[in-house]
Amino acid sequence: MAELKCSICGNSFEPAESTALPFCSDRCRLIDLGRWLGEHYHVTVEREVPEDELESEFRD
Amino acid sequence: MNAENDKQPEEIAPSSPGNGASPENIESSENAVSPDNGEPATSESKLAKAKTEYGSEDLQHLSDLDHVRRRPAMYIGDVSTRGLHHLVYEVVDNSIDEAMAGFAQHISVMVNNDSSVTVEDDGRGIPVELHQQLSQEMGREVSTLEGVMTVLKFGGKFEKGAYQTSGGLHGVGVTVVNFLSQWCEVQVCREGHVYQQEYERGNPTGPVQKMGTTKKVGTRTTFKPDPQIFQNTKFAYDVLYKRLQELAFLNRGVRIKFFDERISEGDEFCYQNGIVEFVSHLNRASEPIHPDVIYFAGEAEGIGFEVAVQYTSEFTETLHSYVNNIHTIEGGTHVSGFRSALTRTLNNYGRKENLFKDLVPSGDDFREGLTAVISMRVPFPQFEGQTKTKLGNSEVEGIINSSVGESLAKYLEENPKTAKMIVRKGVLAAEAREAARKAKDLLRKRKDALSGGGLPGKLRDCISRDMEKCELYLVEGDSAGGSAEGGRLRDFQAILPLRGKIINAYKSREDKVLANEEVQSMIQAIGSGIGAEQDVSKRRYNKVIIMTDADVDGSHIRTLLLCFFYRQMYHLVADGHVYVAQPPLFRVRMKKDTYYVQTDEEMRNQLLARGLDNAAFISETGMHLTGDAMQHLCGTLAGMEEALVALERRGLSLREHAKRLDAQTHKLPVFHVFLGNTERWFSSRPELDEFLQRQEKDSGQELMVSDGPEPNDKPKPSEGDNEPHLHITELHEVRTINAGLAELNAMGFDIQSLIPQERTGVETPRYIFRRGEHETPMKDLRELLPAIRGAGEKGMQITRFKGLGEMNPEELRETTLDPQNRTLVQVSMRDAGAADEMFRVLMGDKVEPRREFIEKHALEVRNLDV
Question: Is B58 a catalytic residue?
Answer without folding.
Answer: no
